Amino acid sequence: MSGARRRLILDLDTGIDDALALAYALGSPEVELVGVICSYGNVTMRTAVRNTCALLDLLGRPEVPVLAGADRALAATEAFAPPAGVVRIHGENGLGDQRVGGLCRCAPGDGLALLRAEAQRAAEKNEELLYVPTGPLTNLALALGAVPGLSSALGRVTFMGGALAVPGNVSPCAEANIANDPVAADAVLRGGLRTRMVGLDVTHQAVLTREDTAAWRELGTPAGRLFADMTDYYIAIYEKNNPHLGGCALHDPLAVAVALDPSLVGCLSANLRVDLEGATRGRTVCDPERLRDAEKSCEVALTVDAPRFLDEFRARVTRALA
Ligand code: BDR
Ligand code: CA
Fold it and tell me: Which end of the chain is more exposed for a tag (fewer CB within 10 A), N or C?
């Protein structure tokens, strides 16, 4: 392995906490963001592309490639459109209905082409590529079947999704990213790839308050203002739906943080599967058929050093917004 900055690809369904994950990545000097592949979930894939381009422009990084990914779940026949409940959480435009300028640079390349090139580069240089999905696992499931050598280039993939020991957030059992494409998530979790699950077990312990957003506003930059207003919109929904949290959950930025520094979480090693039918559809659960296997493919985060994560979050996001 070389001592160069690690190369990072994000896979975002660019709503509010995905935007925070993007800012976290851009404020992290130890990684180089080499592309963002877009997905559907909080918004349509096309809107995710538009939002990502606009945010990269705002954050002063317009050169980062934005790539189109899947616009629907593996088993879906039509492109995904966010249901009313999701629109309430992330706004009509996915960014808390804040106006984000610079929507001009929207000719996305192909996500699979980027992964092919990066997998080849990683093999040649004997490096590991960081890939962090914070939406449904559709892009990853498709890429594993289409890109030779991807699995070994990726090493262990940290993803945001799932809930092992806590309730779901779209049903009593299911978390949103997994529920949006349970077939893809099941294929990834049972396909031999090494993964690290950053699910609701830990993301509901990582909470941002209005004090933090006020500090961003005081930076006096367009990015600071936009991120403060957008995140206040998200916090307001949490105040209604999850008042016990006292702020909003930092789902997606925690996944990026853990990908960069796995020591932020304590994990259970397990082999997982996803329920595909009935009332528990979308549930992430230990796979009874692989319970006794000595090899466990997934590290499931169950504890988090939330104060240390929040310190990192504040420092890195402030760097990106300043
Ligand atoms: C996940 O679902 C999406 O709405 C969020 O962006 C996050 O990735 C939380 O369940
Ligand atoms: Ca997301």
Answer: N
Q: Which residues surround ligand 2, an ion (CB under 5 A)?
A: 13, 18, 134-135, 252
Q: What percentage of the chain carries pLDDT values higher than 90?
A: 95
Strand 265-270 and strand 298-304: pairing?
A: antiparallel
Report how far residue 224's alpha carbon sits from residue 229's, in angstroms, rounded to the nearest whole number.
Answer: 9
Residue 27 clears pLDDT 60, i.e. is over it: yes
Tell me the catalytic residues: 251
Please choose from 42, 52, 178, 180 the residue to mutate so as to test ligand 1's pocket, defined by most ligand atoms within 8 A of CB: 42
Dist. CA 124 → ligand 1 center (Å): 34
How do 194-198 and 298-304 pair as beta strands? parallel
Nearest to 287 by CA among 269, 271, 268: 271
CA 40 vs CA 12, 49, 68, 133, 244: distances in Å: 8, 10, 10, 12, 29
Q: What is the dihedral of CA 234, 237, 241, 247, to 10 degrees?
A: 50
Decide: helix, strand or coil at residue 100: coil
CA dihedral 287, 290, 293, 297 (to 10 degrees): -50
